[in-house]
Model the fold of this input.
Amino acid sequence: MGAVAPSRTTRMLVAVVEAAFFDLDKTVIAHGALVAFGGPFRRAGMVNRRVLARTIWNGLVFRTFGADEERMRRFRESTLQITRGWDHATVTSIVHRTLAEVIDPIVYDEAIVLIEGHRAAGRLVYLVSASPEEIVAPLAEHLGLDGIIASRALLDADGRYTGEVGFYCYGEQKVEAITELAAAASIDLTRSYAYSDSATDLPMLEAVGHPIAVNPDRELTRAALRNGWPIVEFVRGVPLRDRISLPTTARARLITTAAAVVTVSSILAVVLLARRRADATGRLRRPAVS
Done:
């Protein structure tokens, strides 16, 4: 027997689900996640200063000149070679044990406000990152998010990294994973939001109805101006422990404020576009969210 199409009434009863997808590095946190955890990994004897310096240099190059396919391929392969032989359980333990120490000083207050606003508006919130799931998952859990889409490394029979990747969450791969998630969770991408700092995430930003460029690199800035997308600058850090331990009344005020920020985002997009076009430099920075 063939499948019976749902009636119009049945379709109308299906709830519309919206979501917000946040890139991690330089969008929710101020530095690359791998660089941020370099200290704990070095203290554990897993990397040395030379490796850390090279990773930081690569991040600076990406930030200044953009991350084309070839640069990202070389960076991915060098990173995977570094991790070959690492014990998965040890890495997971280090991340969980040092999460607050590493992430607290570099998480963006503005990102947390927007996350709270989306959650208050009833949207699902996900971290979508090329960083490994061993880092992304604990942070998402710490923030109380709904889930992650992240890179996944391959392990051998002894639970050690092979130096190969099972899934690289980058570019079009991000969109494919988001599309699969949207189909499974009945998420309407045309009514959903995405935030990123990098032009490598243009496919993800173009896949949603509300793309926002955060601290964008040069290429993403040009694309945002061309398409009339909002450009926001995140500058303020806040310890997660302070955010999580807010009294109920203060937290309620924060969520109310954040919900208002998200609600007026479409209006801000129009205003920002008009102001940017009037700016002689072709680039206007939006004031930090209060």
